[in-house]
Amino acid sequence: MRTAYSVETVRVAEQELMARLPEGALMQRAVAGLVAACAEFLGRVYGTRIVLLVGSGDNGGDALYAGARLAKRGAGVTAVLLVPDRAHPGGLAALLRAGGRVVRGTDAAEEPLRRADLVVDGIVGIGGKGGLRPDAAKLVDVLGETRAAVVAVDLPSGVDADTGEVRGAAVRADLTVTFGTHKPGLLVDPAREYAGSVRLVDIGLALPGEAELEALQHADVAALLPVPGAESDKYRRGVVGIAAGSSRYPGAAVLAVSGALRGGAGAVRYVGPAGDAVIARFPETLVSTGSPEQAGRVQAWVVGPGAGDDGDVVAAVLRAEVPVLVDADGLRLADRDAVRARRAPTLLTPHAGEAAALLGVPREEVEGARLTSVRELAERYRATVLLKGSTTLIASPGGGAVRVNSTGTGWLATAGSGDVLSGLTGSLLAAGLDAPDAGSVGAYLHGLAGRLAADGAPVGAHDVAEAVREAWRDVMD
Length: 477
Ligand SMILES: NC(=O)C1=CN([C@@H]2O[C@H](COP(=O)(O)OP(=O)(O)OC[C@H]3O[C@@H](n4cnc5c(N)ncnc54)[C@H](OP(=O)(O)O)[C@@H]3O)[C@@H](O)[C@H]2O)[C@@H](O)CC1
Ligand SMILES: [K+]
Prior knowledge:
Layout: E1 2-4, H1 7-20, H2 25-42, E2 49-54, H3 58-72, E3 76-81, H4 89-97, E4 101-104, H5 110-115, E5 118-122, H6 134-144, E6 149-153, E7 175-179, H7 191-195, E8 197-201, E9 213-215, H8 218-224, H9 234-237, E10 239-243, H10 250-261, E11 267-271, H11 275-281, E12 286-288, E13 300-303, H12 311-319, E14 324-326, H13 329-333, H14 336-341, E15 346-348, H15 352-359, H16 363-368, H17 370-381, E16 384-387, E17 392-395, E18 402-405, H18 417-430, H19 435-454, H20 461-476
Helix pairs in contact: 2-3, 3-4, 10-11, 10-18, 15-17, 18-19, 18-20, 19-20
The chain binds ligand NPW and potassium ion (K).
The site of potassium ion has 11 residues, from strand 5 and strand 6.
Domain YjeF N-terminal: 10-211
Cofactor: Mg(2+); K(+)
Family: Belongs to the NnrD/CARKD family. Belongs to the NnrE/AIBP family.
């Protein structure tokens, strides 16, 4: 499991550790990791030109000490001091001793930045408040006009460490070297995109059990995937009911069923007007045309994909005392009080536009503040919420760690891909996973299947469904 902790938690852990170590030792641990990452990134240090962007806090201190070590290894190092009289004194002295040079202010930065092989961003780290100040923002603009590679210290300056929000100018890094723990902003869009690849340097921080954010890895998913035992029959493996599709959108039903058949449930029931299309493609489906109540036993329901305006079916499914996944049209049709009143788990799976409609805010607001939005929705609906996107987030109604999935790919932004995800995830619910696990395992497999199916070329949703089996095997390997 990859975890991320808030700045507040990092600060507490930092204080505890600092109290036990000689002064400056913690910073030198961070610097050692930063230097190793820069050297590896450059391939060869000797003879390279490195520019340090130095703010007025310890983030700038890290950059200055790292610059000093790189200068000793033969790099030409220039530090751009944003606030010259507040640059980290020890770091600055070390750089000057090592033969580094210093320029002051943004205007003087232009020339060295244009010639740089590598820029080290030490403008601001976890001490940053609000958007970058005008001087720093101007420096970031100048940096943006160059083609230099950028390594960010701890965080790309300008992104919010705790929320992943980016308000105004921010550094676009090729690599971010972060200390002690990932910060939530490094795993959540839009900030994640600014971070480039992320390298974690262990500096010995002791962090509490519950993180702010968790990202499942292969081994975590493998441990959660439902695998039938020798005694299993289709009912013990779980039966998932799919109430989806309409005469106008029969394809949504077919795609949801295609996902459900690959999610580990022992059988898939389909209820709705697209039964002929479903049975033609997947003869193993148990199809009925009545209401969900009459469909027979299921251990979990999926309702909503391509459902059109059939509010009755959504209301009927919400009355069922088994886990229910609500997606697409179902989100618009579901009564909030009915969702809140449910005793069995509910999993809502909106994309940013649907989440915005549920929250009554513009779509951009959700896209800019994904973590806040998903938490807010989980609380309002007293349900687990999976907010789809390039970094999918899953929040539980009681608060606690938010799950983040980063296996997704831009190729998954294709019609019907969400229908496959809802079927797949509903199947995992029916197989007995709890709502946050079903959501995060579903998103993980779906993202991986998207990557495997795409392999660098466009894919349709049915390709993604077909690749779920390969993703499953890949995880189990
Ligand atoms: N945690 C750890 O264990 C370890 C942490 N370490 C390192 O320390 C870093 C944290 O250092 P930090 O606390 O000095 O804060 P930092 O990020 O340098 O920023 C504060 C400075 O920036 C300024 N400033 C604020 N907002 C701004 C804005 N919007 N735009 C522009 N400027 C802004 C603010 O100015 P002020 O408000 O005081 O006027 C203040 O001077 C951390 O990220 C990591 O790199 C490692 O060395 C060792 C292990
Ligand atoms: K930084």
